[in-house]
Amino acid sequence: MTQDSSPIQQDGTRPSRAKTALQTVKSVLPKALVGPSEHRNPGTALKPEWFDTIQVNLSAIERRAATMGTRRSVKKNYQAAWLVKAITCIDLTTLAGDDTPGRVHRLAMKARRPLRDDLVEALGLGDAPPKVGAVCVYPTMVAPAVKALRGSGIPVASVATGFPAGLTPLPQRLAEIRYAVEEGAGEIDIVITRAHVLLGEWQALYDEVAAMREACGPAHLKAILGTGDLKTLRNVYKASMVAMQAGADFIKTSTGKEDVNATMPVSLTMIRALRDYGDLTGERVGFKPAGGLKTAKDALNWLTLMKEELGHPWLQPDLFRIGASSMLADIERQLEHHVTGQYASAAHHAMA
């Protein structure tokens, strides 16, 4: 039997798990992790010399990536605090062929209050309940999402540019961006032409992303590289660097539709690229893993990666997002266990 380590009160009794959570989870959320800020990447001219001769040590990357889920861990109240932080970085997403305004409305309501009220109070967050980083939908669903989220401060992100393949003609892809922005999207998740990377056509890739950035206007541009299609980590690094030079505000791993989506080695390679870009330009670019991230453990692993490689600024939703639809339910389930000591059925926590 595990010994109860909660503190003894003055009357000789121990507080309930809920009261312990109330007293401690909020207190261990570092101030540096609270509150997003606006940021844009102005880009640079295309500079192939920054990436042409790059070499990626695959075995070293894989060894480093393997430590994320083994050597590093956070427990108890600190784990709960990190899971609350993860919620604020989630792009809650629905990208299904049968999406309707009603489904988007339900998702938006979950985005506003991702945790049940009783859990929010038990965690001591009643004065500032957490909400997700954004809601991500198709362009035709942007207007219903904007309406449902009005007054919440949660931005609407829209995939565009012929998602997920990105193989429609460029004028149509740019028109789709402009349509989504006109409908109210504050963030645009574009997909690059993977063939430009596979053929080493860096000027073509740069021009494409730069045109998309211009079409976004005030909306932030998140460049999806489709890393499962890029074959090598060298290609991943080079595509990351070109997208950032062209003005991408975020680089994102995947559409979620490839055979291989977000992996730790790919994420580490992209993070090293944006760190190098920051060293060369002084600019901060965001990162978004997407596709295949489903559990609270996944959230903790990627938060650990961001903190260790880049530091606290990249634990803010303006520089880190997690593309997910099912992860939130598992996070809520883990937080309920933290508060009550019991696991609820996954069906007990509504997705939307």
TrEMBL record:
Catalysed reaction, written as an equation: 2-deoxy-D-ribose 5-phosphate = D-glyceraldehyde 3-phosphate + acetaldehyde
InterPro entries from the UniProt entry: Aldolase_TIM, DeoC, DeoC/FbaB/LacD_aldolase
Gene3D superfamilies assigned to the protein according to its UniProt record, in alphabetical order: Aldolase class I
Biological process (GO), any one: deoxyribonucleotide catabolic process
UniProt keywords, alphabetically: Lyase, Schiff base
Chain intervals for the UniProt region annotation (Disordered): 1-20
Any Pfam family matching the protein: DeoC
UniProt keyword annotation of Lyase present: yes
Ranges annotated as biased composition (Polar residues): 1-13
Pathway: Carbohydrate degradation; 2-deoxy-D-ribose 1-phosphate degradation; D-glyceraldehyde 3-phosphate and acetaldehyde from 2-deoxy-alpha-D-ribose 1-phosphate: step 2/2
Family as reported in the entry's similarity comment: Belongs to the DeoC/FbaB aldolase family. DeoC type 2 subfamily.
Protein name from the UniProt record: Deoxyribose-phosphate aldolase
Organism: Lichenifustis flavocetrariae
Origin organism lineage: Bacteria, Pseudomonadati, Pseudomonadota, Alphaproteobacteria, Hyphomicrobiales
Record gene name: deoC
